[in-house]
Amino acid sequence: AFLHPPPGVTQRELWFMRKLSPSKDMSLKHHKGNPQKLLEMNGHTAVPHSYDYDLIVIGGGSGGLAAAKEAAKYEKKVMVLDFVTPTPLGNSWGLGGTCVNVGCIPKKLMHQAALLGQALQDSRKFGWQFPEEVKHNWMTMTESVQNYIGSLNWGYRVALREKKVTYENAYGEFVQPHTVKATNKRGVEKLYTAERFLIATGERPRYLGIPGDKEYCISSDDLFSLPYCPGKTLVVGASYVALECAGFLAGLGLDVTVMVRSILLRGFDQDMANKIGEYMEEHGIKFIREFVPIKVEQIEEGTPGRLKVTAKSTKGNEVIGGEYNTVLLAIGRDACTRKIGLDKVGVKINEKTGKIPVNDMEQTNVPYIYAIGDILQDRLELTPVAIQAGRLLVQRLYGGATTKCDYVNVPTTVFTPLEYGACGYSEENAIQKFGEENIEVYHSHFWPLEWTVPSRDNNKCYAKIICNIRDNERVIGFHVLGPNAGEVTQGFAAAIKCGLTKEQLDSTIGIHPVCAEVFTTLSVTKRSG
Amino acid sequence: MGKTYSLLLLFALFDLSDHTCENVQEQPEYDLLVIGGGSGGLACAKEAAQFGRKVAVLDYVEPSPPGTKWGLGGTCVNVGCIPKKLMHQAALLGSALKDAQILSLSALFLFHSCSSSLNVRLCCFLPNRKVKYFNVKGSFSDPHTIRGLTKGGKETILTAEKIVIATGGRPKYPIHVAGALEYGITSDDLFWLKESPGKTLVVGASYISLECAGFLTGIGLDTTVMMRSIPLRGFDQQMASLVTEYMESYGTKFLKKCIPTKVEKLESNRLQVTWKNTDSGTEETDSFDTVMWAVGRAPDTKALNLETVGVKTNSETGKIIVDAREATSVPHIYAVGDITEGRPELTPTAIAAGKLLAQRLFGQSSELMDYDNVPTTVFTPLEYGCVGLSEEKAVQCYGSDNIEVYHAYYKPLEFTVAERDATQCYMKMVCLREREQRILGLHFIGPNAGEVIQGFALGIKCGATYPQLMKTIGIHPTCAEEITKLHITKRSGLDATVTGC
């Protein structure tokens, strides 16, 4: 039944089609519009009813898909164009965007694999006995992770089809007002018109622009499907992507070094960022600070091969060299906005960052073109934010709603070995905004009960809240380092949304014995020392 | 009202102390005497000491019938929350070993090495320096005097201005069941066992019963729960049945609608239990290595001699009747924790109540303990956390037409690759149906339920509404984010299974 799979279906998806619905007709319906003819008929004078679609979404990631599905609820004619340009090493993936394929999902699963490694060590103290040598198999892990991702890719396709959203695995770019050109893998081009457009193309990892980077280095776009264990790894960068990847690679037993140009986790609370760094160092991850790579050379081919990295100090002229099996670049991400014909329709981007400025309705300077997700200027790069923004946008466009996406007090978590959850202001930003004398910082170390028996890391987990003294000690920042930080933070984020004050925090009864209860008994201020 | 009262109380204090100085020969030795060194009592004592008061704590652990005893700190630390969560963690690690595909090889659980590492930890619990501690069994001899008896029978007389009773509760034995006391153990003994309990029967359907049965199953023991009627009485019953359903799929056996009638010791040293199946009316029997009773807890008031001083108790439950200020029927005698009538039996409430009481007695405070919306969690194999009203209770209070229940079945990401069953991972939010849709209750079953619920409990305390929760952006990928995405109402009858991101 699958001798002729629809174009753009990856091997992985194909496997799922076979596995999940062997009897169904799997040919995906393609829209066979004739936009040329329509254009001729209308002579470029855009009359709404003459467009092929009500909405074309460029980019099938979390935000784009959420918006497309939402629009379909209002019985709008919707198309999604998604195309993954292969990485320099040739990797590409299915529908769903970064989060599902090369972001949140695989990284959390690999983080979980590393946590299980820790659990194995703990479990001996808890009375479990098993043979000494426990090995981790990289291939088993990546296969399981990739199979799960495959099921998600397939699920998205099914969901789009069920909702009657047209999906094309083709690269979309604007060619003229209200018109995009879609180019598929084989180079076949089609034109589609729509009344409105939503740009949700996201970002891709940045390369260093030094000799050997694209030839020999990998990025997070390659790591999660790497067909071999990366071995001794150099992670370049100090973003959360860098620290998360370094964290789980070390947790799986690999020799990991992180090369950092300046500070860790820029934009996050620096007190917390440094604690994360300290914890990682104590757990065997090496840090080379204030160095940047200038050259990567291959010493030996292989899976993994051997690479020589030459790096230069950011402070002086000192040059160092090191040998690694794998070099993972995680120095930042660039918005995919420069090659989608925005100039043809006049959508402005920030020339420096490539990001798109939008108003509080996610509208670009071209009224019929909207944008959401990681490509937005001055907005958060988070999956749930993109989803929320996309849904609300569509509800405003087609559902008569007026609710705008609220980008304030968005919680987030970083899956470093010691997890970090945060919501609201960092301490630095709070001081800058309100003045040091007007904020009160309450903090406390805590020791998770489940770490006591294996006598693991006392005084590493940390809780901090920042209150605005002038506003009834309202909680404006929440920070936690510890196990399940994301699970802990979510509810507090909801409470902060409801205007939580320190007094209310104090009058809430804790749940015993959990880590989150520490927040109900915070009494020491930073000021007091 | 509260403020006026505390002012009056202050005047009363001054008045009284002048009076005692001049006219009474024996001035009370202590400002505050706390009977019972558990979480609530110690919190109250420490807080009072912070105000510079002279405080003493009396603590005495009557050995359990099989002879288990422990040190200061009370139930939570010694035979409650702390050891049970650690044992639960041991069981969770078992699941982790399974996920890591090691358990199938040749892992085995050494009960002794686990319990001994627990006990080392538990023994280091020390009282606050500023508080005087007596390891004596206290009883009232007059309203201001406590007679303390040491283990050796030595008597100590202590007098105090104010007295707080915080003696907690102890597990009940089913006295009508022959052999129950002789051969059975309770949660007071379980955590201090030197050897694995082996094949175990846990009798009861309380959270203690289910938690213990859960971790015993998790560490690889053949475990059976016998229950008379419903599981987790007082908790939301839909959630309760999901909890037990999961336990059944996890390997815990259940004998439902069964009542034990006798326990006998066989020659093999095993215990033969006979019970009546009230459904079929038949008598059934099986043998076990250990029988644990988890049929409820009784307040520990017998030794206190409360009648002498006139402290009133509820004749049915035996618990001490207190008002909103934790005062008993005798104005200078107070009670906090599990011993008090109608209060949640939870460590953090006892601690908060004890602290607030000390602040009212010795500080300038008039703040009363708020017993509403207290969150809690049950550490069953699949954890259950909740805050606020159960669905039944909400229906009872507001009528089913006036409440809206949002719910979802979800799959934790870490269950997917490990191919763990997530059939019972479920959450629901009970809201008022009127415009604001204020949240009345939140219920969550899944990993780390306690960690998830804590923050939301705070939101509910702040009067969170459904729309406010929907405005909260999720943290991806976590289980807790599903709460911010709840949108299917029970009323709609739509499929509540969460799919994809």
From TrEMBL, chain A:
FAD binds at K108, G172, D374. The active site is at H512. InterPro entries: FAD/NAD-bd_sf, FAD/NAD-binding_dom, FAD/NAD-linked_Rdtase_dimer_sf, GSHR/TRXR-like, Pyr_nuc-diS_OxRdtase, Pyr_nucl-diS_OxRdtase_dimer, Pyr_OxRdtase_I_AS, Thioredoxin/glutathione_Rdtase. Disulfide bonds join C99-C104. This is Thioredoxin reductase 1, cytoplasmic. Binds 1 FAD per subunit. GO terms for biological process: cell redox homeostasis; cellular response to oxidative stress; glutathione metabolic process. It catalyses: [thioredoxin]-dithiol + NADP(+) = [thioredoxin]-disulfide + NADPH + H(+); H2O2 + NADPH + H(+) = NADP(+) + 2 H2O. NAD(+) binds at G237, A238, S239, Y240, V241, A242, L243, E244, G332.
TrEMBL record, chain B:
Residues 374-485 form the Pyridine nucleotide-disulphide oxidoreductase dimerisation domain. One of its GO terms (cellular component) is cytosol. Binds 1 FAD per subunit. Its EC number is 1.8.1.9. Gene3D superfamilies: 3.30.390.30, FAD/NAD(P)-binding domain (3.50.50.60). GO terms for biological process: cell redox homeostasis; cellular response to oxidative stress; glutathione metabolic process. Keywords: Disulfide bond, FAD, Flavoprotein, NAD, NADP, Nucleotide-binding, Oxidoreductase, Redox-active center, Selenocysteine, Signal. NAD(+) binds at G204, A205, S206, Y207, I208, S209, L210, E211, G296. FAD binds at K85, G138, D338. The active site is at H476. Residues 1-19 form the signal peptide. Disulfide bonds join C76-C81. Pfam families: Pyr_redox_2, Pyr_redox_dim. Residues 30-354 form the FAD/NAD(P)-binding domain. One of its GO terms (molecular function) is thioredoxin-disulfide reductase (NADPH) activity. Its cofactor is FAD. It is an enzyme of class 1 (oxidoreductase). This is thioredoxin-disulfide reductase (NADPH). It comes from Anser brachyrhynchus (Pink-footed goose). The lineage of its organism: Eukaryota, Metazoa, Chordata, Craniata, Vertebrata. The gene is TXNRD2.
